Amino acid sequence: MTVPMPIPEQTGLDALRAEIDSLDRQMQELLIRRFEVTREVANLKQSQRSQNNWRPSRQAQLLRGLVERHRGTCPQTALIRIWQEIMGASLALQGPFSVGVAIADTGDLWDIARDHFGNVAPMGLIGPAPQVVGAVTEGDIAVGIVPLPNDGEEMPWWRLIGVGNDGETPVRAVARLPLFGAEGARGNAAIDGFALARLTIEPSGQDRCLMAVETSQEVSRGGIAALAGKMLPAGARVLASAIENDGRWWLIEADQFLPVESPSPFATESQIRHYVHLGCYAAPYGA
Description:
This protein has helices at 8-47, 56-69, 76-93, 110-117, 129-138, 221-231, and strands spanning 99-102, 123-127, 143-147, 172-177, 193-197, 207-216, 236-244, 247-254, 274-282. The chain starts with 7 loop residues before the first helix and ends in a 5-residue tail after the last strand. By secondary structure, the chain is an alpha+beta fold. It is built from 6 helices and 9 strands, in the order αααβαβαββββαβββ. The strands form 2 sheets. A 5-stranded mixed sheet has the order 2-1-3-5-4, sandwiched between helices. A 4-stranded antiparallel sheet has the order 7-8-6-9. Helices cover 35% and strands 21% of the residues. Among the domains are: 93-197, 3-Layer(aba) Sandwich (D-Maltodextrin-Binding Protein, domain 2), CATH 3.40.190; 207-282, Alpha-Beta Plaits (2-Layer Sandwich). Helix 2 packs antiparallel against helix 3 (76-93). Residues 184-189 have low confidence and may be disordered. GO terms for molecular function: chorismate mutase activity.
């Protein structure tokens, strides 16, 4: 009986498949060990009674490093998605953690929230953005996702954050989403949003700061934009405004990290009645 000789191409293909199987097993073993270390971190945090399980600045640093080191044919979007799933699952193991998503008239925030926190983190729709702020304030959820605001909203969520009771960490903007784009969103439904939480603000190395200032109603958008450009030379933009009593509040995003305890960059400007630091967060990648 004649034994057929293996086809060289088939032999090479079998060898490559065997190598892929071996690599998959090695990757799984590394993943198992990573989650063992995550559990050790969780135990240490519990012993220290730490409530700051999510560190958005560290997440941004890890993802930036991942992208900057990357090479080869694996799509960057797939690489980011894999690691966001790993980090989201790790976060869920470290203690109670849940995400509340605002229902926004301007688009769908669910996709960018799920992309950022992965499929393991508990997530649910809450209601309008002010209701999300209330849920974060009361501790009903760890993180709230709210939309990029518009001018003239009746109750803008950004007027409800940045100020807390004595000794309490206030709700602040701690991330802007999407951090790396929203390629997986359904059509054009996804919109930009902010993640709100009661966390200590930490720099990531490439950051933005959100602030609110009050002026008289006579100050124009162009006027406040010019003033922000002068007082925040790294770059700034006006995102929204809202009339309150006899004044107008402006939401400004600056291209720099400003510590919460730092003085107002508008302290010398008589046009500014009040200033509120609303948070800092990693700048979206490539922005």
